[in-house]
Amino acid sequence: MSKVKIVFFIDVLKKDFDGVSNTTSQIAYRLPRDQFDAIFITPLPPEDPEFPFPVYKCPSIDLPLYKQYKLALPKRMKELEAILDDFKPDIVHWSTPSALGWYAVNYAKKNKIPAATIYHTHFTSYVEYFLRFVPGIDKISPPIARRLLSLYKDCSLVLAPTESMSDYLKVLRVDAGKINVWGRGVNQHLFSPDFRDDKFFTPYGVTSKKKILFVSRLVSYKSTDSLIELYKLLDKGHKLIVTGDGPDMERLQSKMPEAVFTGKLTGEALSKVFASADVFVFPSVTETFGNVILEAMASGLPVVAARAGGPADIIEHGVTGFLAEPGNTKEMYGHVKSLLSDDELHAMIREKAIYYASQQNWDVLCQRLFDYYTDLAKTAS
Asked: Which of 13, 36, 169, 243 gives a 20 to 30 Å CA spacing to 276?
């Protein structure tokens, strides 16, 4: 059989930028070149000169409210359709319900090519976030969400990261026969208890206090208001560490003056901040998966998260971590205090979490994805 040709449309292809870009990078570097050929269309290309496949940069503008992201404008790329026609893809894979996603699906429909996607984003929550300053948002948001949903309905393959996200898509009337559950892996070499450094936080003025870690993009849809409420409950012997950046940072710094803000960390510094903390908290209720939860687990860090979306599927309550009702910061902090005051409980949860994370293997997951691609191409031919 000839190689299966896939065109990937992704809004960010920079490694370690966010969960979507990390997942796509894992796929790209593992895609067997003897079985597949691929090209990537993106406004934010990878910085790695050894990236294994051709990348075409798409025109873009800064995304309002979050300028680290770009809003792709594929229709301004006059040569794009010619590039695609010359490549002759067997599969169109798109990542987010953006202008780039619309272009990808429309191209697939026009050329009768199967489209595939991974459900990365709770788009209804994101629509409300990015349009929250628009008058009449309560009337605008539902129609936009319905239009975004139509993109998933037009796909031949929709990969949901967890069972609950699969169920959510079925409730939205995405054809159950098109949905498969496809999880996430974690880099065991980058996230490990071996990176623990008891002096890591000394430059931040933190020595003997118990360290509660939050790692995320700092945007309101990550439930940062709940993080602020959690901060207000902290005992004097506890210190909140916030790692990440984003448009909500200035507000968070003003509301949580005693918290430590490290900014965004990558590489070994990120490995150390995970492994050197004592508990990880994650109040976000908009996650389809929650990659940082796996990273915390792999680092030997017990997790306390909101019982919502992907995290509720990842964490087995009382075994690999703890779950609290969304927005219930008192319940969340109660679990944090239990972990920090009970060494035996902390050690048990830590051990179970490390084992669970060790079973989430990118090689196995990607091979399953490549099998999906192969089957999809056969069905279409």
From this structure: 13
pLDDT tens readout for residues 9-57? 999 898 777 888 889 999 999 999 999 999 999 999 999 999 999 999 9
Q: Which helix (H) or strand (E) holds 265?
A: none
Contacts of 286 by beta carbon, 8 Å cutoff, 6+ apart: 122, 125, 126, 221, 222, 223, 309
Same-domain check for residues 168 and 237: no
Domain with 349, as residue range(s), is 193-358
Token digits of residue 26: 């894992």
Distance (Å, whole) CA 21 – CA 12: 6
Alpha-carbon distance 46 to 44, whole Å?
A: 7
Contact 245, 217 (CB under 8 A): yes
Contacts of 180 (CB under 8 A, 6+ apart): 157, 158, 159, 160, 372
The reported pTM is 0.87
Same domain, 176 and 40: yes
